[in-house]
Structure prediction request, 312 residues.
Amino acid sequence: MSHEKYQRLIDTAKALPPVATAVAHPCDESSLTGAVDAAKLGLIRPLLVGPKAKIDAAARKAKLDLAGFQMIDAPHSHGAAATAVELVRSGKAEALMKGSLHTDELMAAVVKRDTGLRTARRVSHCFVMDVPSYETALIISDAAVNIAPTLKDKIDIVQNAIDLAHALRFPEVRVAILSAMETVNPDVPSTVEAAALCKMADRGQITGGILDGPLALDNAINLAAASIKKIVSPVAGRANVLIVPDLEAGNMLAKSLSFLAKADSAGIVLGAKVPIILTSRADSVMARLASCAVASLVAATRRESVAKAIAA
Prediction:
């Protein structure tokens, strides 16, 4: 299967310096192999955080050579999450990567008020999907973190997704705010929120992208469907960012694309001080590498922003 969209991301990231990445609890074959494979490509420089005996056992099982990799001992998964977050806070890592612990464990350490990685932005998740039948990579948000986001939450969810699209060097960011229909209906709150988000973009409260919504999925990604409905906009039929109403809709959309359209999905969490790589045991090798490439590009963009701010 062709993965030209992901390959372009990986090739772009390979030209950048490897990103120091705190890998929390890489104690099974898949998570440890993912980190090692990404290191071999020069995408990340992993700091392996967790019980040393378990990491060594996983390496032996997967026949991996960990010589040259820095290992930081932590007693258990909770301790590994806390230590990995502290490596970021102390400036020793520019990205965080989930190992074989629950997402909730890692995110609990990330969002702690005094010792976590919070910013003024709400944390949100984006899938960067390589759908073979679609012309561009697709960003879908939020399908993994925010369960029932409010309009206020969606402002940050949209802005995080737009910023990600810029970090991935999308030439134009076309954002479709999805609902079940393309008209504003007071009985369907997601349509009202979609209209409000678009007006916020018009007024400069959301920047960097072209927004349209509400849009149903068909007229967001299919030009013929948009034409039949007589929707004229630069987004309809050619969106490259899809903002879903809630986690359930996003999760079903992403998994439908994965299992019915044979898409791969790279996962990243944004809105914290550094990008957070969330991978699943079901992810393909290409999806894991793409997730690391996405984090590398986000970290590079953040580095440039900090340098510009200091220079100013």
